[in-house]
User: Fold this.
Amino acid sequence: MNRLDRITEALARSAARRLSRRSFFGRLGAAMTVATVPLLPVSRAAAERGPQPPQPQEKGDPANCDYWRYCAIDGFLCSCCGGSMSSCPPGTEPSPITWVGTCRNPVDNKDYVISYNDCCGKSACGRCECNRNERDTPVYQPAGSNDINWCLGTQSGVVYNCSTAVVLGAAS
Amino acid sequence: MNIWRIAASAALAAAIVPAAALAQTEELKSEEMYQVELADQMRPHWVWVNDVSFTRPLDGRAYLLDADSGQFLGMVSGGYAQGPLQITRDGKRFSMVSTYYSRGTRGERTDVATFYDIKTLDQTGEVVIPPKHFISLPILSTARLSDDDRFLLVYNFTPEQSVSVVDVAAGKLIGETATPGCALVYPVAPRRFFMQCSDSALQAVSISEAGALSLDATTTKLFSDDDPANEKPVRITPAEWLFITRDSEVRIVDGSGAVPKVKAKWSLLDKDTAEWRIGGLQPSAYHARSGRLYTLMHVGDRDTHKDPGTEVWVYDVAAGKRVQRIKLDGPATALAVSEDAEPLLYTVMFGVDELAVYDARDGTKRRGITGLGNSLSVIQPAPVAP
Assistant:
């Protein structure tokens, strides 16, 4: 059971940092709040939510395979598909479990843990294909493997659309 | 006579002359359509090429080609993210494991093992299996037939890990066994296989006559964390698999005993070739008759383990020595070798629509078969006829 524990722990830890129960309840709470407050036309217009941009202190182009966060990515860049390096295109669902990589940010020269969540539920976007394999592991070590279709944890199913690269935090 | 009449007469004359010349030929007969049927067994130079259709993955397929004539013989459609085929030892039948959704990209997921014969490339049966088979870029060991072709063993990942067993002869699902921490299927005998585990150990598994799996002995850690074995080994004897690590170290694992053992260790590299590395999606192949290992090699660092090869290096496995270098006509991410006495070397490059065919002995390129789609992943030659 040790092996299972290790895999489960790695996967669960990365999952918990993104689509946790907290975020589910957060969304639920937001929905409930909205339901009790009458919607004005202006607030409906404000409901539009664009792709999340890079953080201000970053450098590089998230639509380019050379962008620093993509050091272990494999697939189509969501930045070219209606999303961004940290948001899924409209109508696609982020995978709750995925593989993680460690990439060096050239601006502060620090290593960051990057989570490569897939966006799922529509066929492959097909744009900006990018495959980089820094510290990529074989598929029998799944937590670090970019060859696996990680859409398997979604409600939408395994149909893969594109890949993101979300900063989880500095690698200690 | 006006100009139009003159033109019309000239045209008539032009039409009559050839008609008169052709009057002796027989009139075309009406035709009856029929479906082509192939030989009932894969010929030695027939080869399957997987097109995972990476940019349109709902349309996965595999092409059957005749490498001698360059002819496209036929194809099969495998649904979402086409995986490799499981070809029977006699080359007469094959199966594949597919995923379908009831509404194309959404709805209820159905996973199914579909059985075909080579002669018609038509389905001969199917078995619905648990909807959790492992989906990745194609890897040959995600589903394997037992050595007597009786059972189909399918690796699942949800990320809980398990293996489903299908009784091929009876056409029914037998069951599913949890294989915590361990992945993929490497047969070593008709009723035994081993799996690769995340701590770099191997797990032995036995199959009962009824198709029930039992997890047997586990090895100690056989590979280091910073130089793991790849998951694309080649089988060199019924009980032995040849693994290659990220740093191009060879480890031959003997699965004949109760606990799999490393039987031999050597390196693809020496001091003059230290900057080279093995790489690709299907980076090695073995030709049993000659005892030769074929590897896709390129110059690159540790993180280039999926990069295409520019050369094929050939090794005498018994001696652990390189015997030949073949410069490829173009880079390649996969290679395979036909198993007959006049072996052909096949390569494809993911993103390029061609199967390249070389003479495996002298390395000369015989032909390229093009127009095959843009996501060619694994190559599956005909098995050796028994």
User: Anything to note?
Assistant: Chain B is about 5% helix and 45% strand.
